[in-house]
DNA sequence: CGACCACCTTGATATAGATCAAGCCAGCAG
DNA sequence: CTGCTGGCTTGATCTATATCAAGGTGGTCG
């Protein structure tokens, strides 16, 4: 009776599977991300079912997880690292529609074929579900289905926010919004780490944004060119609103100013 | 246990309610849109519950249905007409994130406050659900919850397509894509009408797009100005790809060409 | 150690689409 | 019928961002 819920993904079978843990019923119970989105609110039985229905994978940077147009057979929950989701035009123009950070799912598609591509940005850990198993979980655990509905609703709201950015914000506003997103992503990751590391009371990291992706990815996410992204970041640095840190981190010196820029209330 | 699923809307109580039909248990059973998305797959009992949990409203053009930032108390299913959904920046810049045509829902929000605004484009009929009733239906009728999950997934895929348009398509490609969307919307409406009007075998309307919204709305949907929209439509008319009809309809003379333009494979 | 490569930055110039400015057209009120 | 209003079209000019072009930097590998 229920319409088939399609999920998507393409991945060579077994790639990255941790053989020793495949059948570990405790895996989800012990997971860092247990309380994140999809897996929250489940009892021990539910978590065991989840562990049995999924496999944990570790994927190196640049791995194609989902290819547009391929049969949608897998569904993923990200537990570590960052995945980029994108759509492309025949001539190669590309739009990154979002980055999936730990706690986020990916792989739902409205048809039996994926409507987007997905590729790892850095080293990524995911739990992979095959579609039949996912369907079983949705039917057997109403909390799980409700979690997924809430998660998809969240993503839709994010997409609407991103449409506002793409259609109506200037380059500077786009970059400011992006940096704030990445600040939030890093803060969430820190919070999760702290919650599972009871000794260290989490030294309040001073406004650091995690930016594991390249300028090309940022440009394709913001609807700009890499040159404009680079120039805009340089301008923010000159204005002492941000500062460079090591490799893939940017320090936000003036978060309030950045927030004003992002919402179009200031032009620096 | 299930996280509260928030829905949104602001509407003066009772506005547009058809008093005589409020309690009509047959209403959903007899509805044109019964098989559309949310309400499909329900048995008589389910349809009766749906009818009891919702009210049918008729809203004139330009009615504010949902206002960004107001408590999210209502959820709607559109049965007639077109609603625009949008987000705005403090200085008034606006992005229309989508048009809800018959068969589409609106009103879900990730928090207890709506994250977007919604306004009728033309005369609109909707079924309105208050949040507690919606929650009840989702819990009592798994088919209904599954339908909603599928519908939200569809909207997310549309949003991703629209991000590709906003970030990476030219003005001409944007307008071509929009006209094809409106062609599809009109074809779906015709099909629904035909299915409920068994006498008339639905004279295959020759590629007509329904465009009830103004140039301002189109511009705010495509991330352009009204002048650019107007110029681009004029150019397509000059190229004999489209032709004007009465007020709010546009005839598509060369759908294949339009499709090529929309996907970036031709520049005319 | 050197040189290659991927990625990033900065500068000069070009252009798609925005902005500014008129005027047109249809429907409605008087 | 006349004039007003809201929505649309068209033209002239401007500008934010793209494009073209030239280095710079840091990590890796022979």
Automatic annotation (TrEMBL), chains A, B:
Domain called Cyclic nucleotide-binding: residue spans: 38-107
Keyword Transit peptide part of the UniProt annotation: no
Keyword line: DNA-binding, Transcription, Transcription regulation
GO CC terms: cytosol
GO molecular function annotation: DNA binding; DNA-binding transcription factor activity
Residues covered by the HTH crp-type domain: 169-256
CDD domains: CAP_ED, HTH_CRP
The UniProt record lists the keyword Membrane: no
PANTHER family per record: CRP FAMILY TRANSCRIPTIONAL REGULATORY PROTEIN, FUMARATE AND NITRATE REDUCTION REGULATORY PROTEIN
Record's protein name: Helix-turn-helix domain-containing protein
Organism of provenance: Acetobacter garciniae
